[in-house]
Amino acid sequence: MTVPTGRRERKKAATRQKIADTALRLFLERGYDAVGIRDVAAEADVAVTTLFSHFASKEALVFEQDDNFEQRLTQAVTDRAPDEPLIPALRREILAMVRHCTADGSAPIYRMIDESRALRECEESMRLRHAESLATAIAADPGLPQTATACRTIARFVIDAYALAREAADPQAAVDEIFRMIEAAWEAA
Prior knowledge:
The structure is a single chain. By secondary structure, the chain is mostly helical. The protein has ten helices and no strands. Helix 5 packs antiparallel against helix 6, helix 8 (117-140) crosses helix 9 and helix 9 (148-167) packs antiparallel against helix 10 (171-188). It is globular and about 55 Å long.
């Protein structure tokens, strides 16, 4: 994510981060379902309308890095070197994301997501959207003459690789194993 340069942009970014941090703290302390939007706004010392100007929903407070995740995936396709194969570029990005989300302190967040139906449904919706964005980026690459179905399939595999590796006892080994299968599927297409 780019760093805001102007004073106003920095203040908006700081307010957004303060709201997100406050929400996450409250959700982890009290439970996601026990905390309302008004609770978050009051604790962050902002108006509810301010909260909604930064976040479209309560679920968005938990998944505040959603846009960054999607952008990183598509950039793994579009920003790779001209001679770099697709699958290793995607593997590298997924591995970096998995390392980040399995760092110390993240387990309670994923436990909270698993325990909330609303958050699980939101995450599933995001995964489908991410897969479509990734498939579009793959299909748009003129050096990758695959069918739309192949692009969508590989994109879904990549998104699922992130979720599966994040939950594995050995995330690195899981990424390696999953991407061997993705590479074979890509070559078969």
